[in-house]
Amino acid sequence: MATRHLSTQPADHHNRVRFLDAALTVLTDRGVGGLTVRGVAEAAGASTITVYTRFGGRTGLLDALYERAFDLLREDLLNLPPETDDGVADLLEIALAYRRFALESPARYAMMFERSVHDYDPDPELRTAVLRTTFAMFVGKIRRISDPGTDSRDYGYLLWTAMHGLVSVELTIRSQTPLSDWFIEPTDEANEIMYRTGVLSMITGLGLHN
C-alpha cells in the first residue's frame, strides 16, 4: 500500500518499519499514553529529531502507525490457507483470523477502531485507503456465496459490524475482573465458540450459502 511516509529506498523502508514496530511495542506495553515522539524514539534507540525528520511529528507518526496496523491485519488475512470449495467455511476462517488479530494486541485494535487516542483523527484519505484494502477481502469472500443481485458490500458491512461488536465486548470483558455468574466461561475456547456461533448466525441470517 502506498503511504505518505514511505520512501522508495529499501534502507529507508527498513528504518521506517523499525520505528513503527517500536511504536507498536510502546503501544502494547505502555498504552496510548506512551505514544509520544520521545517514547517511540527511545524504544527505537534513536533521537527525537530522527522521528520528527522521518514522520514530521506525532500526527505523522500516528498516521504511519495506523497504516502499519492495517498492513499487519492484511498480511494475516493474506496468509490464511488457500480458498476451498466451501465458501462459508472460508468466510468463517477470515472472521476467526480477525478475532485472533484483535486478541493478539487489544491496544493496537483499539487504535484502529475505537478512537483510543482521543486527540488523534486519522487522515481521511488514509483511513479510506486502509479500510478499503481490508474490507475488500471480506467482500470478496461474501461475493462467492451471495445470490445474484446481492450487494456484497452491504452484507460485508453487516457481517463486519457483528464481528466488531463481538470482539469489542469480549475485549472489554477480558480487561475487567471476571464475573462469577457470567454465562460465558472465562476461557478462550468458550469465547471462540460464542464468536463462531454469532458469525455463523449472521451468515445464515443474510442467506449466504455454498
From TrEMBL:
The keyword Transcription applies. It comes from the Bacteria. Keywords: DNA-binding, Transcription, Transcription regulation. The keyword Flavoprotein does not apply. Residues 13-73 form the HTH tetR-type domain. InterPro entries: Homeodomain-like_sf, HTH-type_TetR-like_transc_reg, HTH_TetR, MT1864/Rv1816-like_C, Tet_transcr_reg_TetR-rel_C_sf. This is TetR/AcrR family transcriptional regulator. It holds the Pfam family TetR_N. Residues 36-55 bind DNA. It comes from Amycolatopsis rhabdoformis.
